User: What shape does this take?
Amino acid sequence: MAELRKDEKIIEIVNVSKIFDETAAVEDVNLYVRKGEFITLLGPSGCGKTTTLRMIAGFDIPTSGKILLNGKDITDLPPNKRPVNTVFQRYALFPHYNIYDNVAFGLKLKKIPVTYINDKGETYTKLRKLTRKEIDEKVKNALAVVDLEGFEKRSVSTLSGGQQQRVAIARAIINEPEILLLDEPLGALDLKMRKEMQIELKEMHRKLGITFIYVTHDQEEALTMSDTIVVMKDGRIQQIGTPTAIYNEPANAFVADFIGDSNILSGTMVGRYSVRFCNKNFKCVDDFEKNEKVDVVVRPEDVKMTAPEDGMLTGKVVSVVFKGVHYEITAMVGRSEMVIQSTQSRNIGDVIGMVIEPDDIHIMKKEFTVNKYDGYITKKNTVVFGDGEFECDVTQLYPGSHLDEEGYLITADGERIDLTDIDVTVEVDLKNIEISDNADEGGACGHIVSLIYKGDHYQYIVRTEENEEDFVFDSEDLWNENDYVSVKIKPENIRLTLKQENK
Amino acid sequence: MVKKILSIALCAIVLVFIYAPILLLVVYSFDNSKIIDVSKFNFSFDLYRQLFHNSEIMQILFNTVWLALAAATLSTVLGTAGAIGIFYSKRKIAKPLQAVSQIPVINAEIVTAISLALLFSMVFLYRTYLSLIVGHMVLCTPFVVLSVLPKLKQMDPNTYEAALDLGASPSQALFKVVIPQIFTGILSGFMLSVTLSLDDYIVTAFTKPKAFDTISTYVYNAVKNGTNSSTPALRALSAIIFIIMIAAVLLINLRAGKKKKEAASR
Assistant: This one.
């Protein structure tokens, strides 16, 4: 095999979008893959990773954009003309052929150029098929690579899932493709087999030296095997990086949540290298604008437990789960949950202190578009959130429902529900919050802690005293910092969703 | 116990109702009298001898088989192509296509026959071999589609893509990978077409050339006239057809059973 120059781009995907029946499966994806690399497209189902792979294989044609292979445009090239082979999730072996014929399928179709010299001494090339002997030898080698020597005469249906997947790999690599595409190849295997195959595939990649493009929804698999991970969501690339970079420096809350376990908390920058969350200020290593809303990511293994008086945070243990190597301890800090992984155990009900080093606090910019709160419904069918009580329309929790005279909710099916103390998620748009000087007028009161002029309006943050909840909103009127105001929200502008449904 | 006896008795009655007439036919195919008389039975192979010496019947038999094979072959090709086309169409198109292709199955045969007659007389091809073959194809093709489509749906759709991926052209992928996987469906479609065409009377009667007869039209005419001298020989012919059919069904079932056993023993 020719020596690989690691920096050479083998595949380039340029502004590629794919639209199926008016919904975009892949949107404006830009990506390049270096020669010899093991790259993984990672994301939840429906994120567009398989569609991206299918476009590289040639099964789907991009709606717009270009795919380049070694600098040449292959966007419209049919799959049989591409030097790319695929390993399918459900193997897609040919059931009417035995193992030998499955593996030899590509070779039997292949024609190789041979140069002849005719009587006049001119050279000319002709295409010829591979001889039986050549095919035999290659099939033997390919089956040896996947550890299936001697399986030639067996029929597909007599093989286990793992063996079938090996045949599928042998069938693909025998054609010596420049790129091997693997579409969740281990998805149908059991856990133990999967772990073994992960190691074997990685080893195969090293031995063959060809480029692997791997698709999976399993973050652990991606972290274990890849040189580069591409995290996708809703048809868009969220982050591209090495496994270490993706784990330690997730680009946004989605990546942090998807890769590994993490505590994602809402925070606000309170100064240079200083962030406030869980009602405490923490030193950090990321620099953002003062008062900017941020997402704070803390990995569970980075939270150290201490005695309550030594902790930067204190919390009460609500659950302890033994996970084999460590304990997973969940503690409530105020109303936020903090998950901790530790080799030490604690008892439920213990009050513990927690220390988080500045290095372990990862801060990400938050796209702030809506105020989001945890709240609950009262007896009077009002909702409590953000240190205040607001009138609201509870019937939106159940479509088609209405209230009876006694204040119970009657669902569309006629079920009678008492909403008291039900936990809800509350959302209020930035434009739907008003403030007033009269403290009795609104549902919650607080001081204006920030105002930013945004061209044609001001963006304000009102912070309450008790739990330091923030109300962010846009207004054209001018107020002063530190004004004490009350927050008014019209009932129709409070969006409620049930908590259980989100889980 | 009583329940068991009753259920067996019921089964027996049903079977007798189905098979008694046929058995009677087989029995009387060995009776050479022109008009069957229940009181006396003249055993002889005479009817069979007559059958094979009657060149008219032999010609008609040949016609019937030839027509059935030709119509079935053409229908199988057309129906398989149609099924593959429906399967690989977009869903919006595939659904109505499939529904439309199945209408002839539920349509009354007489309606199909009359409309075919009408169509062919308009293009001056009425009562030609073409109208006959096309008529039988109209009859058989939907059944081929019906037996091939489920096989396509059972097939792993990725195998076609895998073939392309490994360097096969679309037509190579079709013949090397798709057709072999749906072959049992194609075969049963073909067999179904042969049987349908063999015993069809209505469409044949409306589309056949004047001087051409198949077994069904011949028998029908013979019975209608009531005087045809070769009628008794048809008893022998019917018996032979029945025996062949029974043999074919038994053979297919035995083979299927054997395959199942093989699969189970793995």
